Amino acid sequence: xxxxxxxxxxxxxxxxxxxxxxxxxxxxxxxxxxxxxxxxxxxxxxxxxxxxxxxxxxxxxxxxxxxxxxxxxxxxxxxxxxxxxxxxxxxxxxxxxxxxxxxxxxxxxxxxxxxxxxxxxxxxxxxxxxxxxxxxxxxxxxxxxxxxxxxxxxxxxxxxxxxxxxxxxxxxxxxxxxxxxxxxxxxxxxxxxxxxxxxxxxxxxxxxxxxxxxxxxxxxxxxxxxxxxxxxxxxxxxxxxxxxxxxxxxxxxxxxxxxxxxxxxxxxxxxxxxxxxxxxxxxxxxxxxxxxxxxxxxxxxxxxxxxxxxxxxxxxxxxxxxxxxxx
Length: 327
Prior knowledge:
327 residues, globular, five-stranded parallel β-sheet, Helicase, Ruva Protein, domain 3
C-alpha cells in the first residue's frame, strides 16, 4: 500500500476519533491532553494509568469514554480489603453435580476502571498482571480469554500516601502510558462552574463509535511509516535513559535504571497512533517528542540523589529530549 493510499484510508476510517472527542467534550472541560491519550490507548490497545489529585475528572473521563464507545464497562473501587477473586472470579462448588464450576468475575468486560488502584494490596495488584499482559485469566486448570478490546484504565492519587500500596515496577511497566492530570486554567474552571454547579443530572455520553471501527483503525496504525532516522531517534532517546551521562553529565547520578525495550516498542507505537489521530501516514520527530513523557515517566527509576533534590522524572526526560539530536 502506498503512502497516498494509506493517507486516504486514514481519512476514511478516523472519523470516529472526532466523534468521540466531541461527545466527551460535552462532559469534560479543558482536558484535551487527557482525551488525546485515551484515544492513543484505544488505538494501541494499551492500558493507561491516570495520576492526579482528587477532583480533576479522571474517573469522569473514563466513564465518558465508555459511554461514547459501544463496549462493556466495569468499575472497581480498589480498597485494602479487596480480594483477587472479586476481580477475576473463582471456582464455585456445585453440590448437585459434585464438581467445581467457574464463576467469571467482572474483569470480563472491554473497559475496566481501576479507581484508586494503589489502595489495594500487592496480591490484588498482581492478580491484574496476567490480564493486562496476556489478555487472559486463569481459574483452576482453565484459561479464559478476555474480550476484545480489553483496556485497564487506572487512577491514583499522588499526594495521599496513607493506606496506599505502591505499584510494583513490573505492573507499572504493563501500562502503556502514565498520564499526569493537572489543574484547569481559570477560564476552564469558570466553564466547569457554569456547567456543573447545578443539581440537574449530569449529561450522559452517547455511543458514537464501535469496537469494529477501533479495530480497523489499529490495522492502519500498524502500517504508518517510520523513517529509519526516526527509528534511530527513538532508540537514542531510550538509550539516553540508560546512559544519561553520554548526553548530559548532570544526569549521571540521577537515574538508577533506564527504560526497558518495552519502552522502545511503546514509544514507536504511540507515535504511530498520534500520527494516525492527526491524519498522517508517517511519523514525525515531534510525534515522538510529544509521547516521551507519558510513555517513559513511569519507566525510569530515579536515584536517591534525585529524590533528595526533588527532581522529577518529567524534568529529567525534558533534559534528555533537549540533548538527544533530532533527525
